C-alpha cells in the first residue's frame, strides 16, 4: 500500500485481518496485525475480535485467550462479539467453568 502512496490506518488493517480470518489464513492475519503495530497504530476491539476469530477457527484456544488478555492490557474494552468469541473458544475446549 505504501508503494502506491496509500497510508494504511487501523480500519485498513482491520479489513485485512477480517478478510484473512474469513479465508482461514492465520499467518497472513498475524502478519497484518504485526504490521499494524509496527506502523505505530493501536489495535482496537475490531482488530482483536477478528484476530481472535481466526485463532478460534484454528481451534487455538490458548491464542484466543492471549489476544483477549492483550486487549485488556492495552485498555481496549471488549464488546459482544469479543465476549461471544471467547465463550465459544472456551466452550469448544471444554473450559466452560472459566
Automatic annotation (TrEMBL):
The family database entries (InterPro entries) matched by this protein are listed as: PPR_rpt, TPR-like_helical_dom_sf
Q: Residue span of the signal peptide, if any?
A: none
| Keyword Repeat part of the UniProt annotation | yes
| Family annotation (PROSITE patterns) | PPR
Is-annotated flag, keyword Repeat? yes
Q: Which UniProt keywords apply?
A: Repeat
Return the PPR repeat spans: 9-43, 44-78
Which Pfam families does the record match to this protein?
A: PPR_1 (PF12854), PPR_3 (PF13812)
Q: What protein am I looking at?
A: Pentacotripeptide-repeat region of PRORP domain-containing protein
Q: Which organism is it from?
A: Rhodosorus marinus
Amino acid at each position: 500500500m505504501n508503494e502506491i502512496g496509500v497510508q494504511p490506518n487501523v480500519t485498513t488493517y482491520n479489513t485485512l485481518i477480517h478478510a484473512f480470518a474469513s479465508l482461514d489464513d492465520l499467518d497472513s492475519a498475524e502478519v497484518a496485525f504485526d504490521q499494524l503495530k509496527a506502523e505505530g497504530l493501536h489495535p482496537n476491539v475490531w482488530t482483536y475480535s477478528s484476530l481472535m476469530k481466526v485463532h478460534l477457527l484454528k481451534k487455538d484456544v490458548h491464542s484466543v485467550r492471549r489476544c483477549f488478555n492483550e486487549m485488556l492490557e492495552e485498555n481496549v474494552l471488549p464488546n459482544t462479539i469479543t465476549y461471544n468469541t471467547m465463550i465459544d473458544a472456551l466452550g469448544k475446549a471444554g473450559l466452560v467453568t472459566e
